Amino acid sequence: MRMKTTICQIGNSKGILLPESVLKAIGAHTELEIRVSGRQIILEAAKELRKDWFKNAPAGSASSESEAREWDRLRLDDETDWQWN
Length: 85
Prior knowledge:
Elements: E1 8-10, E2 13-15, H1 20-26, E3 32-37, E4 40-45, H2 65-73
Antiparallel strand pairs: 1-2, 3-4
């Protein structure tokens, strides 16, 4: 698949619009990983590292559905709230 898109001004930044068909083709849902290699920008579907962590937790346990969703939203690269002992 190959196509052109326009670089747009978004506030103080620049951005591009990606067709939904492109995102579906790579399995991207909410986040992308971006790499630069030479003069190329490489976009990949972000890995869902904590997906289904609580899938087999017993009903009514501390690992509830809402707690599972909270864990899914955490970013591994953001250590601002982490406390190391």
